[in-house]
Protein 1
Amino acid sequence: MHKAACIIAARASQVGLRARNSRNSPVSLNKEQVQRIATLARLKLADEEAAETVQKLSRIVAFVDQLSQANTDNVTPMAHPLNASQRLRADVVTELDDRDHVQENAAAVQDGLYLVPKVIE
Amino acid sequence: MAQDLHLLTLTQIAASLRNGDFSACEITDLLLRRIEASDASLNAFITVTADQALATAKRADETRAAGKAGALNGLPLAHKDIFCTRDVLTSCGSHMLDNFVAPYDATVVERFANAGAVMLGKTNMDEFAMGSSNETSFFGPVHNPWDLERTPGGSSGGSSAAVAARLAPAATGTDTGGSIRQPAALTGTVGLKPTYGRVSRYGMIAFASSLDQAGVITRSAEDAALLLGVMAGFDARDSTCIDHPVPDYVAGLSTSLNGLRVGIVRQHFDAGLDGQTALAVKAALAVLEEQGAILSEVDLPNLDLSVPTYYVVAPAECSSNLSRFDGVRFGHRASDPKDLFDLYCRSRGEGFGAEVKRRIMTGTYVLSAGYYDAYYLKAQQVRQLIADDFRKAFADVDVIAGPTAPTPAFKLGDKTDDPITMYLNDIYTIGANLAGLPAISTPCGFVAGLPVGLHLVGPPWGEEALLRCAHQYQLQTDWHLACPEAYR
Amino acid sequence: MKPAWEVVIGLEVHTQLATRSKIFSGAATEYGAAPNTQACLVDLGYPGVLPVLNEEVVRMACKFGLAVNATVAERSVFARKNYFYPDLPKGYQISQYELPIVKHGELFIQGDDGSDKRIGITRAHLEEDAGKSIHEGLQQFSGIDLNRAGTPLLEIVSEPDLRSAKEAVAYMRKIHSIVRYLGISDGNMQEGSFRCDANVSVRPRGQDTLGTRAELKNLNSFRFVEKAINFEVQRQIELIEDGGTVVQETRLYDSDKDETRSMRSKEEANDYRYFPDPDLLPVEIEKSFIDSVRASLPELPDAKQQRFVNEYALKPDDADILTLSRALADYFEAAAAAGSASAQVVANWVLGDLAAALNRDGLEIENSRVTAADLAGLVDRIADDTISGKIAKEVFEIMWKRGGSESPTIPVPAGQLSLAGQIIKELDLEQISDTSAIEAVVDEVIAANPSQVADYQSGKEKLFGFFVGKVMQQTGGKANPGQVNAILKARLSK
């Protein structure tokens, strides 16, 4: 059994996404689940968007659910299509300061800092 | 000077520039005028870099006069707006990045520039490359030069339309599930997606990292070979790019197809494929056979699962890749956020279009607690099975041939209601992305006045065989020479 | 703490690796640069850029693994931990999840009962650090500085084998010592390059299952680790004894108030959606690489401690302290080699007057104002009876003030004289060992204090110290104390 999955499964209830327990049950998502996913993904959905999203996401999830038919016992999940491994770079400083140029794309900057609404810890 | 320079292929332009028939400035100027004239009808470009193009062309002419011309000196081309271009708007077809000026060049852009190519502009595309019809672009859909009511395909639809309408002899594209090959098929152009790791992804805005690969849309296999030779090769800035020798792709084109083993996948011709399209593809296979290719059937038993596999893996990766667009360092930022959460949710909610949001949400769902095993892990396992199927098939054949898309170009608006119908458009092309294989689409006929593409897939690093096969086919046929009437 | 409760602690130590460039980019890692000037496009999570792994980071993790007798994984995988936070530019942190680079290690500390205690190391994995949020002086905003983003971290996770705050500190010190020995981290706690989280729970003694734990975040000094754990243990016990239950949560230690408090805001609805990072490939480490790293390992604290006991005949406890830091051990060895006095005496000086002076001035041993050679010169003058131990302390203080033999305050005449020798000569501090001279002073003292002599001789032996004091006073403290004692004894018993 996949270790990550165990750990992740243990957290399922915390997020409120109910894991499937039956392969036969039709897969679909309700509005509340979709809202929870949107929150996790930090996406604000307009009201008219929300209903359509529930319907289309349910369609997609039901569609990809056909994967459950495949027999994947003892199959190693793919890491890289050509089974390559990670190459290492030498520990050398190659990047020079380009802050002012790069910060031209930022909407709010002060004294070289990127600004966000106050973060409360 | 001839009046129809725009009809020349890249290879022909290169020869003419060498001969001094015309200058880089002349051809660049001509194409810029064509782009401007067609803009209202096609919407193929998001940005036209006219001044920069003319300046580069002028430099290319000077370089040539000084006898120091690079491989692509003075050759005009367009870049898909997914490639970062220094100090030029790089929008990725999204409202999220409609104010984003990249501070650096993508490796592909840099390599073409170093070889002397002239960038005409940045082509329109589905938002963040998510789409098969170019209708998800924030900048509006691109129209197919063969029928303005139809799609030029997607996501590299701006590139395919620009090449088909002779606005640019070549354009770059990216292909995550068919985004180069399907638009090529739908516009009667040539689309090449190289082996995963053949071309650097550095500077190409990521959709699905393990599937994305840069390639080109051209009017001939010869042109694709010329460009691949420049863009391919190791890049230390991309860990997934592989250090593998780059052959002379152009030199490899002339070998005949005698003895080439071509595999046909039976399922490709089952229900779902338009009958007329099937006939065109079968006729193309007969041409290959006449040239000495040996046809045989191959079995890819898990291919049916390729679309669902793709629609787990790609959204999962995209949901994470697109998290960086948060309104802080670049991109759209919501006005007057009341707190951090609001800043994130509104910047992203406003900045991304509906399809991108759907994919982010699909990806978030399949990776979330309790679902990872059933979807993401499972999909990566099925992906391995699909790759194994291809591996076994390539023990017996050199290339696998079939249709690129199930139908010719459909009408804009026809498939926007149901995402699954749209997704199934990529049914023949997705396998190559899942397995990391090179593939090419070349024009092979018309159905009701709309182009049809022949799809060829090769084993890893099999670009030479694909290009040769397409080139030899093009020597026997003239489908690739057909030009939409309004753009002759 | 009531003995009915057993405390169970596991530590996660975050060690910043001392590389020149970041873990996945070529930006510099130096501390203290102006905001965002050491954050390149990769660190900023710019569209299109990609991570490439720093070789030195892999070597360092490998070193640590070998040093704690762990398995260095032939194949490890980087994963993305997805969550939104302003100091996390990509919206995910690249870390290792299922397949870390180091697993199943161990080290030994002195347990609460005084014996050697094995502490298991579950794993050590590589990850990138986040940036920093700055709240001061920006009104309704927070400012984000991403200079630290992408700095390499090795997160070392212990088994829940620690049973007290004291053991936790001993474990943390041991890790600190090892990473500094290996040269893989500067261990600087002020700059945040060595910090830890503690998982703390309590259970009735004798119970097998673990109690519910609280995770204490970001403890950046040994003292805070101890105080935070002690506070938390007390809180949990009191809570349970009052009929409450401990909730699994993240708590922040507030050093000003000396308490831990819940950080519920950050805990809310976290679902990290870990998956292998498709921009990075599995890291495969060949045996030859591991062998070359093994060959480059320095002598580690435990081995050095053992050697100091065997080779220098040091007390084991002294050897323990001397080997806590490689620099201190090197200093001791240099001093012991430079002089002819017994190594234990040198050790006493290093751990006594030298340690006190360093502590007083807030200096590290690397910046000691008395060099190892000068300390050896001083100790030798005691051994050869040139000065007494008491005078030596004065000489040491003068040496400390003058600051090393390179100091130009004394014109050094050519010759063999050590710095201590020069000071002794200059200030005329040489010990009086001439018997007749001491006898003369003793006689004077006896003659001048007849009543004390009578009292002493009638049994008030405590007065002996009075006579020693008088003799020392008259000789300016320079008389050889052994001789003074012997002569006084002889004269007074007459």
Note: Chain B has one domain: 5-263+397-487.
Protein 2
Amino acid sequence: MTTVLSVRDATKIFGGQTALDHVSIDVQPGEVRALVGQNGCGKSTLIKILAGFHEPEPGTSVTVGGEELAFSNATASESVGLRFVHQDLGLVANLDAVDNMAIGQGYITGPTKTISWKKERAAAREALLELGYDINVRMPVGALAMSERTAVAIARAMSTRGSETRMLILDEPTANLPAAEAQRLYKLVRGVADRGIAVLFVSHHFDEVFEMADSVTVLRDAKHIITRPVEGLTEEELIELVVGRKIEEHVTDADAREHGKPVIELKGLAGAAVHGLDLTVHAGEVVGIAGITGSGREEVAALVFGGHDRGGEVIVNGEALPQCRPDISIERGIALVPAERHANASLMDQTLRENITIVNPSAHMSMGFLRRSSERSDVNEWLDKLDVRPRNSEYTMAQLSGGNQQKVVIARWMRQEPSVLILDEPTQGVDVGAKADIHRLVDEAAAQGTAVLVASTDHEELVRVCDRVIIMRRGKAVDVLKGATLTNDNITAASIGRDSSDSAA
Amino acid sequence: MSEVQAAPRRRINLGFDRFSGLYVWAVLIIVFSLWIPDLFLQVSTLKQILSFQAIAAMVALGLIIPVAAGAFDLTVAGTVSVSVCFTAWALANHHGVIVAAVGSLILGLIIGLVNSVVVVKLKVDSFIGTLGMSSILIAVAYAITQNSQIVLSVEGYGPFLDFARGQFLGLPYTVYYAAVIALIMWWVLEYTPGGRYLYAVGGNPVAARLAGVRIGRVTTIAFVTSGLVAAFAGIALEATIGTATPNVGDGYLLPAFSAVFLGATQIRPGRVNVLGTLVAIFLLATGVSGLQLAGAPSYVTNLFNGVALIVAVALAVRTASRRK
């Protein structure tokens, strides 16, 4: 067996900052390797060097199947047999799988240069069947389930014509997948590896590391820390390797926490996917919402806050909340940290200061002028409190890593001292360290009497922060887990349809 | 706190990116001073540049507001025409200066409101919506003037014409109006919550809305502002030239947009801003008048404006991508 990928002394310096420091790794055929580390540890840089996007420093050498890789050349990366699937998948949502797979590598054409749709479709279907997915290849990919979309992207990468596929490289393959769909993808990846193809994937989700990977490489502060088999590794050990310190075990004791009066009540909440949700959250209580995509979980936060048209009533501190008026929601003390911060929360080209004070900038008006110095000291206080790095209010949002951007969005809302805090996928694409910080902030907010509602596909997160978790299926709340029944497995089981013991009784 | 970071470090930076316009401006002045010192190095040249650009500067300054909020307002030129024609018509028909001026401003306000209904309520893309409105405004201007030229004689309308032609410290009043508008816009954009909301809506309307910004209202205010400023510029223009033709405003469309976009590469790169826009206007005007004084043909104005805009924005794109 020859080594598929061999990286030697990979180094990359960006403007004096070392992003990757003499990293060497080897991957064997059929091996599934996880690449983990905090945001900014160098894993994306390494992937981008492999993809021909970054030119590494001299002294770096990469061979694929014995062939030397020419740097800074995406075509060269492809011709030695590397295949990439990026986190956003790069699919065109309104085109079907056939078109998506043909784009970029050319259609199969007949003698008159017209597209042979029959052959093209057959090829697409076959490529997907090989991955274990039997889907309608003529449906726009936007209408497919998330894991099916990922499968289309993988099939496209693997079916690249012109060179043999030696290695599949995935960036956060299950980042946005509900547990059940993630399981399907694990199987797919195992199948690819069984064909002798090496797989390298970047991940923040440790469950996928343990479920999918044979071995794991940890990077920290641009350096290679360890490469070892997953077998015999515990989650605590892995976290410690990634963070470089121990993260203290947190135990939520739901019964010990005192809850105050009801702060927010949902009565028959309805939207496109939610069909009648009743829920009350008390002061100081953290309530989670779990469910697969399509269950309505993904819509609750926006419906409550007024992001979308809604049916039913939302009552905050005894007063009904008008719909579709985020400004009024904010006045009444509601805060929403929405999912997908790039689309829904970030002002990428604006400074951290402007991002944080965009809600209620008037607080810093005096004599008709917004006072930057007072703004800056307010903002710096929050950057300190949330340990945002770099701690500089004048950086633009685009200059920060994902985890730090999320902290800035959270700072924006914590600054309002809300009485209701709604978090939608609060730690999406966030590294372990930042995740722990964000969870600690949720604890603190609850301790100060804030009613917190968390919608998340990350079940461990729900177990970690919530007092109780509402399970949604087909737009309705079907189950409640709390205390001893609130476990990772129970949430998964309940969301995919196996009723937990209490509701069966 | 595990790590205390030093206060924001200031690198010594000559600012070739942020202040490139100022450097180019200086180079232009030096070049023309050496090339045609007798013609260029005159106080009259400076005065001429300032007074010729005052109206264009006003239109551009008003336009900054909708562009900051991510909306194109192509009606600024049509609004200038309508305002010029209405002012002239009202005066020529002896309705008095108050009716002429207030009426023009009300027309500017109405144009802004209609634009915002089209863009916010009817959800027509601002580029297309204001393009359609521009065509309508041309029709309005022709209707007002009955397809002919209105001339206000100096004898009959002296006091009105003095509104623009009157001088203070050797400069026509229009220069001061432009300066006051610039100050107001600068204050709004840099030092009020309204400015933050405009930039937030322009940057990411979804995020702005979820942060409680009322994007419909912000967009409406933006269109009304540019409409009012363009109408005011129209009154000043009429007082400057004393005649009204229905297409008089057309020439202000491209310079205004050029100045705003060129200005977005200056001072605060990546966002439209007042100081950058002013630099752009006077940079272009200096280049053009220098070339004209040196004997270049009159088409050089448009040629120079177009080339300068493309080169400046291309350079800005390059520096921005290098920074990433």
Note: Chain B touches chain A at residues 1-3, 5, 8, 187, 190-193, 195-197, 199-200, 203-204, 206-214, 270-271, 324 (CB under 8 Å).
